[in-house]
Amino acid sequence: xxxxxxxxxxxxxxxxxxxxxxxxxxxxxxxxxxxxxxxxxxxxxxxxxxxxxxxxxxxxxxxxxxxxxxxxxxxxxxxxxxxxxxxxxxxxxxxxxxxxxxxxxxxxxxxxxxxxxxxxxxxxxxxxxxxxxxxxxxxxxxxxxxxxxxxxxxxxxxxxxxxxxxxxxxxxxxxxxxxxxxxxxxxxxxxxxxxxxxxxxxxxxxxxxxxxxxxxxxxxxxxxxxxxxxxxxxxxxxxxxxxxxxxxxxxxxxxxxxxxxxxxxxxxxxxxxxxxxxxxxxxxxxxxxxxxxxxxxxxxxxxxxxxxxxxxxxxxxxxxxxxxxxxxxxxxxxxxxxxxxxxxxxxxxxxxxxxxxxxxxxxxxxxxxxxxxxxxxxxxxxxxxxxxxxxxxxxxxxxxxxxxxxxxxxxxxxxxxxxxxxxxxxxxxxxxxxxxxxxxxxxxxxxxxxxxxxxxxxxxxxxxxxxxxxxxxxxxxxxxxxxxxxxxxxxxxxxxxxxxxxxxxxxxxxxxxxxxxxxxxxxxxxxxxxxxxxxxxxxxxxxxxxxxxxxxxxxxxxxxxxxxxxxxxxxxxxxxxxxxxxxxxxxxxxxxxxxxxxxxxxxxxxxxxxxxxxxxxxxxxxxxxxxxxxxxxxxxxxxxxxxxxxxxxxxxxxxxxxxxxxxxxxxxxxxxxxxxxxxxxxxxxxxxxxxxxxxxxxxxxxxxxxxxxxxxxxxxxxxxxxxxxxxxxxxxxxxxxxxxxxxxxxxxxxxxxxxxxxxxxxxxxxxxxxxxxxxxxxxxxxxxxxxxxxxxxxxxxxx
Length: 799
Fold this sequence. Notes:
This protein is mainly beta. It has four helices and 45 strands. It has a 22-stranded antiparallel β-barrel. Strands 9-10-15-16-13-14 form a six-stranded mixed beta sheet, with no helix packed on it. Strands 1, 4, 7 and 8 form a four-stranded mixed beta sheet that branches.
């Protein structure tokens, strides 16, 4: 007996000792054929509350265990059949007479698959996007987010109104760094997703650094038994890539165990055209044009374990662990640069080759305890630990060619870069229901982050192969951060009014130390973060709402270190130990009409926003990417949302946002202003097709005019995704087909031109592809899992 089976046997045995009385029986159809996967739900005597439940096996048998003596109502149901109920008085374990289910007259003897339309609900602080049983859930979690209103996935970066959101799954934050977030979500099946909430003004219980929250909610039910799902997909872009995964879920009255594993082999292409005009005092000196090709090949293993033990009706203990392991993550970048002095006398070109191999793992573990009191109040305690290990081995060679071949030469260097991060946090939350319409919540949290980084660069003599330590580009960085937080929030509703508000307090202590330069960076600050929402149903079909919030964005750990990381001889990615946190205030006011149309105005201010800016060093002919605090940003706009149901099989969602983005940047002791009006639109359509609704289709489009990000103006773009899903094999299997970037208009050009800066980059991304997927459910297919991927905002800043 292997370890897993032994553990399962042990858990079932322990559960067995806690059993009291049992109800069992069989369910058959009118032909006396056993019905598998019928639901047998036990209610209290007046059928107002669910007590327990089970589902039938292949022989139509069910068992409902761990019951006390008393009066109950048993209700048995199955899709396409009329349900049946009967009263039961239980004083000892008993077997119920065989229950016969007859075909429902409403379905005329046919089994109907209920495919739900994609629906949207606009609330005062969030937009709820319902995707359960649509074509979207046959893809990945990242595919779902690409079709979520207001969410933009661009070059692996997830954005909501120029802000990186924090991802939660069933109220647990995703346990991964920002750079690995897209990898995780693209490696995770979406078949258990119920809905996605875009929370623009999250309650005070969320960390102040959460900002906008994307909350992914997985489906749940009470049915007992075992369910498994196997899935695979094949994607053809510039290069093929494929995934495979297995999800297993086992549920009893006392125990939930969910174990997922996914593997992805991916090779993604990217082409860049870079044009840089180096100049001094507005006089052109050199024009550089680079054709760059980068292939990223990765092998990703992701495993997620969720273990819930229900001690009794009021006490639950949970263990969650997530592992992301990338033993192979290879960047292979080749570039050809032509240098022109505009006079033709000093023209030359060089070719560079950057080969970088990464090896990293990220393990996050959470232990949760939840206690329900008799007065309906709840206490939640969480302890979290993350260990993260990242290693990069980089080799760069460049060959220079001049008009006079005797001047040709080559350079080479290699870089070893390591980072180890440990995160430890704990929090306590208490919720108290004051009455049916009022709730009070409060809590505290403590977290500590330690990260150790180092970089070593060796210059390589291309003739002899000898290596020499480059002390100027060799460094180390130690970082220690502690955050202590407390919050209180209150919400209340009346017949036509609802109000919620809260206040969060966070004390942050930071010490960064670079032993090579003997430089210490200390930060110590205390900040308040208020939250407020109000809604008023002014008329039967119209309501008004308003909100206000303040939140923080702390620098990523690697952005604070002082390393100069050379991508080639002339392109550098560097850190900034002087970075300060940024603070955002966000206000909205709007109205919703007939639950279908929403008009909302907003105003946002950001101080010290952290943006990675491309900066030219015109004297040394270097192109430097450095994180910088932008002095001030002001943004205001008007959003229009429409959610229309054309028919029972067709629905449409439309969003149009017109806003102004205005910012000031300090550069060379001068302030420069950037201003841009932007129009962003989204259209999402859902179809249910065929008589049994077994074919579902979703079309998502997103368009933006010219936009502004930092000092960079981006060209307009069009995102497009078409998803189709067909139920097969008695609805246990599903075949899906997705087309991404159909018109090939997702590539983006960007330009930065101010002061002595003049550069342009065109990004030709590998976003045009077709994906074929297949999933199959076995065991009790009516089960939905307890799958959670916990996350903490501290982890989102790893890279």
